[in-house]
Design a protein that fits this description.
Pfam families: NurA. This is NurA domain-containing protein. By secondary structure, the chain is α+β, with helices and mostly antiparallel strands. It is built from 11 helices and 10 strands.
Length: 360
């Protein structure tokens, strides 16, 4: 392709994107004015109330996938970190709870990739049972996770999706009897807010990303109120309403997943989401609150705000610690794989071992 043609195509693309951005900015301004003027059942609020003394528990997990010659190796770990709020003083005990599993299989790496997510989430869900005595449990990621529901094959050493959904739903229902249950999402793969605004007439906003819309609305509100250091949240986004009135494709698969959970929730529980920011310089997180029907989900945001620190991607300090401690590093995985290969090599027959060395 000639340089002139290449420059023209890039210029045309840039101009189209700038025009689309101008349209989106106009729609954001309309949405902000509607929120500001109280024309929507969506509003900004400052977190003013302080949580009562309580025990908290944060859960996070990770997994590491390594393709080997004839199989795929998966290392998964989940960690629970506790926090204690006693009469205004916060403390984080050094003891942690941990679930750890190593698995391998010969299936395609893509299949094992999906299964490894389920394995990690299964370990995270198992740790919910070890948060006994906690007034609030804060889980990294959406409460309904994975966000997509798919038919998956059975693979030895990995949980099946249907079994995982039943297990997680049962545990969530059990823990909800005595604890607030919260999910903290750092990424907005489900565009709840865009879906909400599209249902209120702003159809062209569908071309924008959720993160951009949320960030701009928070910035505009903080500038309007001259409120840069306060904790703010935007909501509520009720999952029942959003999934019933779907306008964005990303919610189609989530509706299937949510329906699967609702069969076990027996119409007793529901999920409501809020967007939360500790201060102007902090990332925005989506807070999913599991609540009983008729219960006020907003009150549980005081727990998040109590443990939040400015600038943390994980939002709260105990979720940050759980994230750090659950991380499976490359060095750790390489040591485990070396041990695995050494043990396998000892068990191989001479001909098999020679074939393995030649094929490297």
């Amino acid at each position: 392709m000639k340089n002139d043609d290449l420059v023209k195509r890039i210029t045309d693309l840039a101009e189209r994107n700038m025009k689309e951005r101008e349209k989106v900015n106009t729609l954001i301004e309309i949405a902000f004015e509607d929120i500001r003027d109280g024309n929507l059942d969506l509003e900004f609020r400052e977190v003013k109330e302080r949580s009562t003394p309580h025990n908290a528990c944060a859960i996070d997990g990770s997994r590491y996938i390594v393709p080997l010659r004839d199989s795929v190796f998966v290392i998964a770990r989940a960690v629970a970190v506790r926090g204690e709020d006693k009469e205004g003083e916060k403390d984080i005990p050094p003891q942690i709870e941990e679930e750890f599993k190593i698995a391998s299989n010969y299936y395609d790496e893509n299949v094992i990739g999906n299964k490894s997510i389920l394995l990690m989430l299964y370990l995270e869900t198992t740790l919910l049972n070890k948060c006994e005595g906690s007034d609030v449990i804060m889980i990294d990621g959406p409460l309904i996770d994975p966000p997509t529901y798919y038919e998956d094959p059975h693979v030895d050493d990995f949980p099946d999706l249907s079994d995982y959904v039943k297990f997680r739903a049962d545990v969530l229902m059990q823990k909800k009897r005595n604890s607030a249950i919260i999910g903290i999402s750092k990424r907005f793969s489900q565009r709840f807010l865009i879906n909400y605004l599209m249902n209120r007439g702003l159809k062209q906003i569908s071309k924008a990303t959720e993160n951009f819309i949320v960030s701009m609305l928070f910035l505009k509100y903080r500038k309007y109120k001259n409120m840069y250091d306060s904790s703010l949240y935007l909501g509520p986004i009720r999952w029942e309403d959003s999934l019933r009135d779907r306008r964005v494709n990303e919610l189609d698969s989530l509706e299937v997943a949510y329906s699967a959970y609702k069969r076990y929730f027996q119409d007793e529980l529901e999920i409501t989401s809020f967007y939360y920011q500790r201060d102007l310089a902090s990332p925005i997180g989506r807070i999913d609150v599991l609540s009983k029907k008729g219960e006020d989900p907003e009150k549980d945001l005081t727990f998040v705000d109590r443990w939040a620190l400015p600038g943390l991607r994980e939002i709260t300090i105990i979720n940050k610690l759980a994230d750090d401690l659950s991380n499976v590093s490359r060095n750790e995985s390489e040591r485990l794989i070396s041990l695995y290969n050494m043990i396998i090599s000892k068990e191989l027959l001479d001909d098999e071992f020679l074939l393995k060395r030649i094929s490297k």
